[in-house]
Structures are given as structure tokens and as C-alpha cells.
Amino acid sequence: SCSSAAVTVKRGTGSHAAPAATVGTGLGISAKEVLTGPQLQAMSDEELGKHVEGCNIYARTSPEHKLRIVRALQRHRHVVAMTGDGVNDGPALRQANIGVAMGLSGTEVAKEAARIILQDDNFATFEVAIRLG
Question: Which residue has the higher pLDDT, 56 or 3?
């Protein structure tokens, strides 16, 4: 699993906060803090930097929000892998240290922006790749 490899999984979604937290919790992602797009929009980069390490669920996010989250994590010296499938994920996939696009459902924009294409769209495959190094 990602946690045994010291990988923290964060979830950014267009969904509203409550369903985003419910799905995240079901996936084993801590929903202790949930930030929404409007909250991110109101935050300076410095303020986001204070929250980004502790927050694992981001709801109602735009492409700009995803990009800011990736950059904030990188400013904290994290190596950031990002998965995505849509045109809206392109900028953050390109900025991430490791951009991972979905091969089956992913748009051409996402695939071109990513460094890795996950052929089966299965996050478990990504976990296996982490374990194998």
C-alpha cells in the first residue's frame, strides 16, 4: 500500500466537500481537513502552504487549484505524483514530478502532459509500481 511506502495520498475532485470526504475516507484517505475550491481561491500561496501537508481532501477544485496544490507540496520539498484523466488535469500533471495519466479514460491532453500512462486506469497498478520501485 502507499502508506507502507511512506506515500501520502491526497484527493482533489470536482465533487462537493461531503461526498469527497466520504469517498476519500472509503479509500483510506484521511478527511480530517477538507478544503474547497472557494477556500483555496481565498488563500494566499503562503496560507495554502500552511495547510497543504495536513489536508488530504480537496473538493470543488479547478485546474488552477490543482496546480497550486502541486506547487505548494513541491515548495515543502515533496516529490509529487499526480494522477489525472481530463483536460483540466493537464497543467498539474505537467507540473508534478511524476504525472500519471489514465490510459483508458484519459484525454489526449492528460496523456501528453503526463510522464507515465497507466494503461488499465487502476490505482492499484500504480501502488504495485511504487512497491517494485
Answer: 56
